[in-house]
Amino acid sequence: MLKRRIALFLLALLPFVSAFAEEKYSPFILAYTTQESVSDVAKTVEKKLQEAGFEVVGNYKPYDSAQILVITNEEMKYEASRSKFGGYGAALRVAITDVDGVTQVSYNNPVYLANGYRMSTDYKMVANELASTLGMEKQFGTDDPMEAEDIREYLHLWYGVF
């Protein structure tokens, strides 16, 4: 009888335990999809980013159906200067890509990036700014999203330099 009560008690606690679980992150964010052309979407995205205070510091086309914008802002440059490997986090990429006739807008997940390079910030403010500027449909890029601390350890162990 006591075992049954303990088991029921533990089952009752399960929703509360999962509510306190750490958020998990993937390396990329899908902002939105559209039927517009890559070039039209790239112009719109660039304008939205600039209006939100981001600076487009680079722009390239790795192939015909994709365009990449490299962005930064004052907060990112400041935070990059405060961390040993922060230079890697001073800029993010925004990709505008045609996938089977659908144009996808995606970007590096700032929180994943900040943890991956063991920065002194979590870049959640940058993530929120990008989500409100471009959107945030879903995270992608791995089958197994990780908690922030696990990202810090994983990349350190994998590359051995951070």
CATH topology: TATA-Binding Protein
CATH top level?
Alpha Beta
Summarize model confidence as the mean pLDDT: 89
| General shape | globular
Count of discrete structural domains:
1
> What CATH architecture label applies?
2-Layer Sandwich
The stretches of 5 or more residues where confidence is low (pLDDT under 50) are none
Q: Helix coverage percent of residues?
A: 40-55%
**H/E element order:** HEEHEEHEEHHEEH
Query: Number of helical runs?
Result: 6
Distance between the termini: 52 Å
Count of DSSP E strands? 8
CATH superfamily membership, which one?
TT1751-like domain
Largest sheet: 6 strands, antiparallel
Radius of gyration: 19 Å
Please list the strands of the largest sheet in the order they lie side by side.
3-4-5-6-2-7
**Beta-strand percent range:** 25-35%
By secondary-structure content and strand pairing, the structural class works out as alpha+beta
Structure described in brief:
By secondary structure, the chain is an alpha+beta fold.
Textual characterization of the structure:
The protein has 162 residues and is of the alpha+beta class. It has one domain: 2-Layer Sandwich (TATA-Binding Protein), CATH 3.30.310.70. Helices cover 43% and strands 28% of the residues. A hairpin with a 2-residue loop joins strand 3 and strand 4. The radius of gyration is 19 Å and the shape is globular. The model has no long low-confidence stretch (mean pLDDT 89).
